[in-house]
User: Fold this.
Amino acid sequence: MPNAKTTTNVRDRILEHVDDLPPQQCTIADYLLEHLDTVPFLSVPELARRCGVSEATIVRFGQRIGFSGFSELKMALVELLQSRLGVDEDRDGGDLGEDLLESVAAHEGRNIRLTVENIEREVFAAIAELVFSADHVYTFGMGISAYLAELAAYTLVQVGVAAHPMSTGFTSPREQLVALKGTDLVLVISLPPYSRQSLELVTAAADAGVATVVLSDRLSAPPALRAGRSLAVRSDNLTFTNAVAAMTVVINALATAVATRHPEEAIDAFAKISRVLSDDPDVISGEG
Assistant:
C-alpha cells in the first residue's frame, strides 16, 4: 500500500504521472493540485461534478498515480490533515498557544536551514548577476506568491534594480509580455498549488527569448522545469498553507548579493530613496 503521509508525496506522485495521463485525468490532476486542502472532504460524485468527468474516471485516476483507488488517496490526505491539525489531548490547554508558536518557529527555521544547505552557490550567484544585469526585472506570482512577488520587486528597487510586479488582473499574464525586451528578466515565484498562469508565463517568456528565473518549493515544479534558472525554496508548513520565511530569506539574499557586488548602484538608490522619503509629508521620522 502506498505511503503518502505528506502533501509533498501526494503532489509529487501526481506530478510524476501528469505527462502520461489522459486529458480527463489531467483535469483531475489540475484540480487536486489546486485544492489539496479541500479534496479530503469531497465525495467521488462531488469531485467528478467539479472536474466534469465520470465517477469511474476519478477512481481510475487514483489507481493511475499509484493508489488502490481514490478512497486510499483521499484517506492519505485526511490522515495528513489530522496529523497536522491534531492536538495532544493530554497537554494543558493553557500552554497550547506558546507550544504552537514555538513549533511554527522551529518549522520555519528548518525550512530556512534546509533551503540554505541545498542551494548551489554558483547557481545563486548566477541568478543574482542576471537580476542585476537585466534592464528591468518583472516579478509575478499567484495567490500568496503574488505578495511575495511584490516583496521581491520592492526589495530589488531598494538596491537599485529596476523592478516591477506584473499584474494578476489581466485576462492572461502573457499579455504583459508584449512590452518586454530580450534584455529584461521575468522572476516568477510559484508555490503550491502551482498556477497554470505562472507556467504559461514562464513558457511564453522563454519562447520570446526573455530570461526567466523561478523560485519554487522544488526544482521539479512545472514552472521551475521551464525556467532558464531556478531555486528550490522550502515552504513546508504545519497546515496546508505555504510557509514563507525561507522565501523571504532568499529574496533578501538576492537583493543583498546585488548590493554587495555592485555597491555604487545600491548606494545611489539608497540616497535617492532617502531624499524622496525626506520630502514626503506622510513619512514619520524614525528617530526617538
